[in-house]
Design brief:
Elements (H helix, E strand, L loop, with lengths): L12 H9 L16 H19 L2 E4 L3 H5 L4 H17 L3 E5 L13 H18 L7 E3 L28 H12 L3
Parallel strand pairs: 1-2, 2-3
């Protein structure tokens, strides 16, 4: 998802979504942790996420995997973990939205950039084909959006921070717009 209190001082996309949707949008809780992998998300899901979402009948936005790719994981491993995350939520009667991944040109991980991009594209193709089969109720296809989804989009300071990984206010507004379209 997105880290609480973005480093650029902007507004988190769920708050931007609330502004777009209006008073019918009740609220949200952000479970994201900066740098978290899908394995860590799965650990937190049982303890934190499921109890909160079942209590509040929330829609769970499942956006993760780029950190795994930074650490050398591949699309198949991402698919396995995302599938498990959605299915566990689904077995607890939680509505989930699946998110495709945007690119990363984060300098720290530049030596593996081509492999990471290949795996990201492979994962996104798999998710577009399988989101319903894994129990997701909607697909938020960030990677299909020309403003934020292309490999070179991360260099556009209108939507991304200088690190070429994290979105800025403009990018988060696009995410809110794409989520709103799925509500």
């Amino acid at each position: 998802m997105t880290t609480p209190k973005p480093k650029d001082g902007g507004t988190e996309w769920p708050i931007l979504l609330r502004q777009q949707v209006g008073p019918g949008y009740v609220g949200w809780q952000n479970f994201a942790v900066a740098g978290q992998t899908l394995a860590q998300m799965l650990e937190d899901q049982q303890i934190q996420v499921i109890p909160a979402c079942t209590k509040n009948r929330a829609i769970l936005m499942v956006w993760g995997g780029i950190n795994d790719l930074h650490h050398g994981s591949n699309a198949d491993a991402l698919a396995t973990m995302i599938k498990a995350y959605h299915q566990r939520a689904n077995s607890n009667y939680i509505t989930t939205f699946a998110f495709t991944l945007t690119a990363s040109q984060y300098a720290k991980y530049a030596p593996t950039e081509n492999q990471r991009e290949s795996e990201r594209l492979k994962f996104n193709r798999w998710l577009r084909t399988n989101w319903q089969k894994i129990g997701a109720d909607a697909l938020v296809d960030l990677a299909a959006d020309k403003r934020i989804g292309n490999f070179d989009s991360v260099a556009n300071r209108k939507y991304f921070q200088a690190d070429k990984l994290h979105m800025n206010q403009g990018g988060r507004a696009v995410v809110a717009e794409l989520v709103k379209a799925q509500l």
